[in-house]
Amino acid sequence: MDLQETKDLVYRCNKCGLCISACPVYQQLLMEAASPRGKVQLVKSYLEGGMELSPRFKEILLTCLLCENCVVNCPSGVQHDHVFTDLRTELVKTYGLNWKKRLIYKLLTNEKLLHSTSVLARLGRNWLLETFAKGMRLGNIPVERLPRVNPKPFRDRFNGLVLPEGEVRGRVYYFTGCFTNYFAEEVGQAVVNVLKRLHLEIEIPSGQDCCGVAAILSGEEEIPMKSVEKNISTLAREDLDAVLVDCATCGAAFKKEYIALLRRKGMDTSKAEILKGKTLDVLEYVAERIDLLPFRKDRNRPKIRVTYHDPCHLVRAQGVSQAPRKILKALPGVEFVEMKDANVCCGGGGSFQFDFPDVSKGITANKIKNIRETGASIVVTGCPGCRVTISGNMDESDQITVLHPIQLVDRLLSEETPEKSPQ
Ligand code: SF4
Ligand code: SF4
User: Is the CB of 92 inside a 6 Å radius of any atom of ligand 1?
Assistant: First the structure.
């Protein structure tokens, strides 16, 4: 890999320190080495030949949520996420990936295997839970609060295409991601319901591959490559109005990480650029059409207080912050309340919460405190990882439901009252 671009980025750093207080990890550890500036200087030293890769170097580089809060607070334009991902790739080449992550990424990026193991996983999860795991935790999350495996993969419910009733006003591709397909059918159903209300034909083929971004951001380039190439060749289509995603991380993969990966590997990015141009988070798409949705305006119920958490992969990786707020403000019967630091990471960071549970715990505790202070009964966020982290870390006494924003839209369209649900 040519690290010249990485070098150019780290040389932009003038050590001003403006990124430091913005870093949620630094706020927990209060160590210069854990700060964005500290990490950038560490990388600079390595690139100049002043130090070698080492297990300690690796640990410091991995103590990062890749939340990009440092990027948006850096006046010199250092793209820390770019620098850190490049170095993670170097670290994987030197030390390899730990076997658990290797196994998970191999499974995630092998759709046939994932599909065939999902039935076993559903049975096994319940059995394991009841038999052994009750009371245990994964990171900071009690195992019984982890999402349940769907009775059957969500995409298997359809024959590849969903048609609206009556007039057809467009055609979109719905990329469900692994999470909705295997764990959150209720989110997928809400997306389909709302898109049908917008009179769209929805392509939703059963065989979609994982976006692969978890592996890519760990620095693993080879395992996800087949899925990346398949997704690009399947989805970079001019005939589609849009490729819609319900997961902030899948959106970040299509709009940003695929191009960065192909560049690192010196490969052609032209088709990935087409995919980037077609990809929209479902919240962006619906926000533009919110006035077309047939909400009942004559609700005579008390307003539901709702707050919103910005996923890092939506607000910074994709620059989407207004669309979800536009939707929430337009919903009849909803009182939208901003929480403090809505755009600060929830502390999940993919596998970060399992690798560094103590650091993660403090960051998540701040997020939950800010949610509670709004007095909201519902918190919505368009990232499955954030929903798992937030709902998994709440107290039993918290009467706060965690939903995807589109679930709230769908429930209000069908005039249901949102109820407390596991996630
Ligand atoms: S990406 Fe987030 S966690 Fe990582 S150094 Fe930057 S601010 Fe800190
Ligand atoms: S804000 Fe940017 S220039 Fe300033 S210390 Fe951080 S990385 Fe360096």
Answer: no
Per-residue pLDDT reduced to its tens digit, 277-300 = 999 999 999 999 999 999 987 767
* pLDDT tens sequence across 188-227: 999 999 999 999 999 998 778 999 999 999 999 999 999 9
Looking at the CA of residue 26, tell me the nearest atom of ligand 1.
8
The continuous run of DSSP H or E covering 69 comes out as helix 69-72
- Write out the CATH class of domain 4-95: mainly alpha
Task: Determine the CATH number of domain 295-413.
Answer: 3.40.50.1860
CB distance 36 to ligand 2 below 6 Å: yes
Q: Do domains 4-95 and 295-413 have the same CATH topology?
A: no
Sorted by where each begins, the domain ranges of the chain are 4-95, 108-287, 295-413
Q: What is the ipTM of this complex?
A: 0.98
- With a CB cutoff of 8 Å and minimum separation 6, the contacts of 164 are 195, 196, 197, 198, 199, 200, 201
Separation CA 58–CA 218 (nearest Å): 11
